[in-house]
């Protein structure tokens, strides 16, 4: 594949941006070889060597899943990332023992969808990997400044919004809640229509309408680079659907109980993987807007933040139960200008 000089200029700038973005709370301690945790048995059986990670086409989920995938690979596991079409497909796959881990359990928005599976023991949330999340309807700042502060304000201005709420992919728990509001005529939204397309098309609508100064309402969430790239405001009043404090949320890692008990070393790593919203958004911006390939963007950031890698690997061993050489692992993540050779 041939690359233009513009591509290399953009890629160099992107690498510099990632390198200069520290993780909030990252330890400044010098990376060292980590001794094995004395209370963990090595995950040496074939049942633990293969780790199946599930994801859907959410950029934030793709970033954190890529981090897990890279670390598992570097410490001796055979990880496999499975892309599924919808959240329902993910939960169904976990219930059928086709996935081991899912890192995108948003609460409270997914609780009603996940509850039957959790009650049946198909999977359980084992750790909060993001506590700075948010998800609810959002509008541009200039619309907010004209009095659109809550979900109830939308219906009074239906014509300005053209009766449309722009969402992302169909089948998400957030879309189910929007459909529920519309079907119940909650907040007077019965005549509105949810436009289900994709994350990219939704953001293209947002960008185009902001450029023209038009009114628009979207499904917004954090972490996402939309919060850095657009001046948007989250709407209040949707506590019964998206939770209080304008949709304040957390994201957890779900795991099959049998896998959690059997593969304790992997389980320890998954519990250690906790993230900061601003860092996720920085990596996501490189992927979504600077067109840096996902694995490259993630590896650039990881290579330049060895202290965070050391924290993530605390108490974790290699798949064979050995000590992890963090400097060596970090060095292996360095990327050049060409195609990644080891992916």
Descriptive tags:
343 residues; D-Maltodextrin-Binding Protein, domain 2; seven-stranded mixed sheet; two-stranded antiparallel sheet; disordered N terminus; alpha/beta; 11 strands
Furnish the topology, listing elements before pairings.
Blueprint: H1 5-19, E1 33-34, H2 46-49, E2 50-55, H3 59-74, E3 78-83, H4 87-95, E4 101-107, H5 111-119, E5 124-140, H6 141-144, H7 152-155, E6 164-166, H8 173-183, E7 193-195, H9 199-212, E8 218-222, H10 226-229, E9 232-234, H11 239-242, H12 244-247, E10 248-255, H13 257-262, H14 264-272, H15 277-288, H16 294-303, H17 306-312, E11 324-325, H18 326-331
Parallel strand pairs: 2-3, 2-4, 6-7
Antiparallel strand pairs: 1-11, 4-10, 5-8, 5-9, 5-10
Walkthrough of the structure:
This protein is an alpha/beta fold. It has 2 domains: 29-132 and 250-331, D-Maltodextrin-Binding Protein, domain 2 (3-Layer(aba) Sandwich), CATH 3.40.190.10; 134-247, D-Maltodextrin-Binding Protein, domain 2 (3-Layer(aba) Sandwich). It contains 18 helices and 11 strands. Strands 2, 3, 4, 5, 8, 9 and 10 form a 7-stranded mixed β-sheet that branches. Strand 2 (50-55), helix 3 and strand 3 (78-83) form a beta-alpha-beta unit. Helix 1 packs across helix 16 (294-303), helix 3 packs across helix 15 (277-288) and helix 3 (59-74) packs across helix 16 (294-303). It is globular, with a radius of gyration of 21 Å. The two termini are 16 Å apart.
């Amino acid at each position: 594949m041939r690359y233009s000089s513009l591509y290399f200029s953009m890629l160099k700038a992107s690498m510099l941006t990632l390198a200069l973005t520290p993780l909030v709370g990252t330890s400044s301690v010098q990376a060292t070889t980590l001794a094995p945790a004395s209370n963990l048995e090595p995950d040496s059986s074939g049942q633990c060597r293969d780790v199946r990670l599930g994801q859907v086409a959410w950029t934030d989920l793709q970033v954190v899943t890529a981090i897990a995938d890279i670390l598992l690979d570097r410490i001796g596991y055979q990880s496999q990332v499975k892309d599924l079409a919808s959240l329902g497909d993910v939960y169904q796959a976990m219930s059928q023992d086709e996935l081991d881990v899912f890192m995108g359990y948003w609460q409270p928005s997914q609780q009603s969808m996940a509850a039957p599976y959790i009650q049946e023991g198909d999977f359980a949330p084992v750790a909060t990997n993001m506590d700075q999340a948010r998800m609810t309807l959002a509008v541009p700042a200039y619309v907010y400044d004209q009095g659109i502060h809550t979900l109830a304000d939308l219906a009074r201005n239906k014509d300005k919004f053209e009766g449309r709420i722009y969402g992302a992919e169909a089948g998400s728990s957030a879309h189910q809640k929007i459909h529920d509001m519309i079907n119940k005529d909650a907040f007077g939204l019965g005549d509105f229509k949810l436009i289900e397309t994709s994350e990219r098309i939704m953001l293209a609508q947002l960008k185009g309408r902001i450029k023209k100064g038009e009114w628009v309402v979207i499904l917004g969430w954090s972490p996402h680079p939309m919060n850095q790239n657009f001046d948007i405001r989250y709407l209040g009043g949707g506590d019964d659907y998206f939770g209080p404090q304008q949709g304040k949320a957390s994201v957890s890692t779900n795991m099959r109980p049998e896998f959690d008990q059997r593969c304790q070393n992997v389980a320890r790593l998954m519990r250690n993987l906790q993230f900061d919203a601003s860092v996720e958004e920085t990596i996501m911006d490189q992927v979504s807007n600077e067109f840096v390939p996902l694995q490259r963007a993630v590896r650039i950031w990881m290579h330049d933040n060895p202290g965070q890698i050391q924290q993530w690997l605390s108490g974790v061993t290699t798949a064979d139960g050995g000590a992890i050489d963090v400097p060596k692992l970090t060095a292996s993540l360095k990327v050049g200008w060409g195609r990644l050779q080891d992916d």
